[in-house]
Amino acid sequence: MPCTARLRPLLLIPLLAGCAGHPSIAAVDARTSTPAGPTHDPRLRASVPHPPAVPSPVAVPLDAGTLSRLARSPIILSITGRSRRCEGAALSDLLRATGAAPADAPHGPHLARYVLAQARDGRRVLFALAELDPAAGGRTVDVVHACAGGADVPGGKPLLLVDGRLDDARTLPGLHTLTVVVAP
Description:
Elements lengths: L1 H19 L7 E2 L4 E2 L22 E3 L3 H5 L4 E7 L2 E9 H7 L15 E7 L4 E5 L12 E7 L11 E4 L12 E8 L2
Antiparallel strand pairs: 1-2, 3-10, 4-5, 5-8, 6-7, 6-10, 8-9
């Protein structure tokens, strides 16, 4: 036993010598029990942020050909007490069909994306991309592009209709551009 007791300190010396060169282990001043010298290794830095994994900005086409290829749904508009039958497509369907939004539910980098809609008169509204996902119980936002009997779409077409209400603050008549952007 006395022989192994003498070897223990000798075995620790090579181990401690190997640790002395490691940047995360700082020397300790024996008199004050505080770290001696810098405890932060200046070579260790935060990683550089990666560029977004999704393209930004993405312009969404609103031409008649693109809108006609989408599944149409009937929409009833109530204007000054009179109902007008129109048809349109869900904004989420338009975004998926043009590749501006993922085919499945938004996740990961898509959660930091938003849709900027602008009207011909310059008014703009924003929607988070995740807010438009129907599977997540998102808002019902439709792009109305035709009304029955050739009647004009209120405010000019296409009309961005939120929750089926013309009086919603984000309903946008005369939709001119849609852009999907990654938030800064």
